[in-house]
Fold these 3 entries.
Entry 1:
Amino acid sequence: MIDTLTEVLIVGAGIGGLTAALSLHHAGIRCALVDRVNELAPLGVGINLQPHAVRELTELGLGDDLEAIGVATAELIHYDRHGNRIWGEPRGLAAGYRWPQYSVHRGELQMVLLRAVRERLGPDAVTTGTVLEGLQEDESADVVVATLRDRATGEVRREPANVVIGADGLYSAVRAHLHPTEGPPVRSGIRMWRGTARRAPFLTGRSMIMAGCNSVAKFVAYPISPTVDGAVTVNWVAEVSTPEDARPADWNAAGRSTRSSRTTRTGTSAGWTCRG
């Protein structure tokens, strides 16, 4: 993957890692990425890009791409559990920012970033199916040596870099190397069920709604796609306070429908939120 010393090796080709690579490339710094999955795919559900994040991506030349895949959120409205409006506030451009707030599908955003990385850094800039197994600092050469294993062949190689960036998610191998006694992520006490649905636009078509509160239960919904044939993709999140739940963090746990009592999967249903 790396013929000569890499200035920056990024572990993880998610949204954070890919954006870091584009920013480094824009600054003239050579970098490469590795990711443990065998194939990067447009997984996930909805996320929100606040104006300060949209500014960075726009300055990287991705403004038109964001407009094409997302919705420029115009307002946030909070309701009580009976559906009565409590308050509302403008968002993004409507709130006076110079850049929009975009609601997008996480996987589609990742694919936009991946295409840009491969176009600008080269088709081999991202190596998948590669696990980070260790890091060793070589102070005499002023480099960090990453031990990487190919998941398909088992081949182990050592890759030197001036800097290693950990962008490898909740169970980060880089973070585990830096903080080996830290322990697992600390849960927030909130369990989340997430999914998407196709339906007609509601309210302004660029509205985000919330009902309830995190102390007991909360529901959030907002569109994450342009309108096609009179319908949009709506992201929904149901959050319930479960302080007694001690199961480990899992972003892909199966949910259970109480109506039919059958197990279903809500996309990448995020069973947990974590802090720390």
Entry 2:
Amino acid sequence: MNNTSVESYLAEGCGRCDKFQTPECKVHTWQEELLALRGILQDTELEENMKWGQPTYSLDGKNVLMMSTLLDCATLNIFKGAAIDHDLLEKPGPNSRYARYLKFRSIEEVESQRDAIVSIVNTAIANERNGVEVEVSDELDLPAELTDRLAAEPELAEAFEALTPGRKRGYMIHIGGAKQSDTRARRVEKCIPKIMEGKGYNER
């Protein structure tokens, strides 16, 4: 990944794929929008640096937001965006609980939404300074195939309860993502060894 500087990112790309340092890099596709967004962010008190191959903006060492690109747009990713109530903010995915995106598909969108961008960024800064956290429910809507197996095997249930909330959620998403009950049951079976070892679904 290209963590050299924001200038290098804009000139060469993020370095996260084989299009790095080529005209096909999506950083170049959305460069005008990125430059406009960067200008807005540089007028704030946020510190600009590079993390994970993306321009990242922090307050007192704590990450507040990240500037990035998708294939179809430039984005501002607000790390605790779920704590901000605004119509322009979008979930990165259906299971996202904390982050929210601002998406821009033209320089005209950036300019027309400038006041809203400034307001959202300033709110994110104020929230970070004041210690505002995203309120999320720890309740998990577990697939029936998993709850049935947990009810039938006390040791498995004990091991599952000992997992961190994030690991539990990972199993919920993986198992519940299957459309057919038989597939969900097979996924439960394959996950049992990792659950018993106290590991998350994506851990080796």
Entry 3:
Amino acid sequence: MKVDLHIHTYYSDGIYSPEKIVDTADQVGLDAIAITDHDNILAYDIARKHLDETGSKLELIRGIEVNTLYKNYEVHILGYFMNPNDNDFQAMIKAQQQARIKQAKEILALLSKKEGLKVKFEDVKKLVAEGGSIGRPHIAKAITNASPSTSLIDVYAKYINENSPVYVQRKTVSPHDAVEIIYDAGGIPVIAHPHDLDIAETLIKELMTCGLRGIEAYHRKHTPACVEYFSSMAEELGLIVTGGSDFHTPNIINGQINLGKSFVPEWVYDKLIKEKKLIDMA
């Protein structure tokens, strides 16, 4: 069984529609996927409808990737199988969306004031699907659209980083609250690509007290040694392991689609399903 539990659509910073993700997953031979857009779950129902219409046997899991901040670390929390109608879960998504819009508008204002770059919010908004999560990648793209001679690499180096004079930190939920809200909504909270965090082990132990149930050990950025390290940590702590490609877009150099390219063992999916049953029984 081939699975990919970390995929983005154009409802956040991916470029494919939910329908395109489903079709592509079928084409590359995946058996189960999770759509995990940043701070957004709108793609799930669209993908589900497309699956039903096409008769695809692909297993689709409702997911999310919540962007959080903790002591100036950006910590991403994946969630699976949440009840989308849970009040606290809905409130978290709404607050995250409002914070994204506020950040974008403040960055654009500083771009105009300090750099003389005139980029309209509407030009940023149209780069993401209606109701989708606006992020810094969309701002960067809007800047290059307004200044065609400027490359995306230059834009990121000059404007889309914490040391930029136009950088504005987003007001966002803490990883502890995100984990607790996902868990209380009947979901499985998992820390995403922990290799990015030099405080990973300490933070994982802290988050377990809030309901953390898994570690994303399999990820395209993780070396085999890294996979082994976090898999062993998960086993020691009694957590499950998840994984996925973290797919956003085809490779810009060779056009290769890495959807499903990260090797994720079949037992990962089995453990995820078992964990959901345990949470439902609790």
